[in-house]
Amino acid sequence: MDGVTWRVLGPAEPGPQPMGTGGEMAWWRSEDEGRTWRPARRVTSDSAFNHAYARRPLHVREPFVGFWADGDPRTFGPSRLYFTDGRGERVWRLPDPMSDERQVPERWPPGR
Q1: Are the C-beta atoms of 34 and 25 separated by less than 8 Å?
Q2: What's the pTM?
Q3: Ramachandran region of residue 73, left (φ > 0), alpha (ψ -120 to 50) or beta?
Q4: Which residues pair with 42 in a beta bridge?
């Protein structure tokens, strides 16, 4: 499989709640069929809560390439939903609360 790059989006960096599920989101890549991995791009940083539950949407289409949730893994509480483009350069968060099924996602972090 020469020339094939594998990419994974997940909570692979330390997050604000150590010893809990999740962390900061990052793209990692492998060019040797998964034998070795290296970080490609950090997607989130300085978050208030750990990110986790990363998923790849069906029928991926830019900019909806990966999505996940955040929350405090130490307690039951609110969670927000995020998604990113294929390069991890742009992140959006769904409004909280959502009052309409067609609300526009907001860029995250605000002002970015």
Answers
A1: no
A2: 0.89
A3: alpha
A4: 26
Residue 8, C-beta contacts closer than 8 angstroms, at least 6 positions apart: 27, 28, 29, 30, 37
What is the C-alpha separation between 10 and 23, in angstroms, rounded? 9
Please state, in angstroms and rounded to a whole number, the distance separating the CA atoms of residues 40 and 37: 9
Q: What is the pLDDT of residues 9-60, one digit of tens each?
A: 999 999 999 999 999 999 999 999 999 999 999 999 999 999 999 999 999 9
* b/e map 33-42, b = 16+ CB within 10 Å: eeeeeeebee
Cβ atoms < 10 Å from Cβ of 51: 25
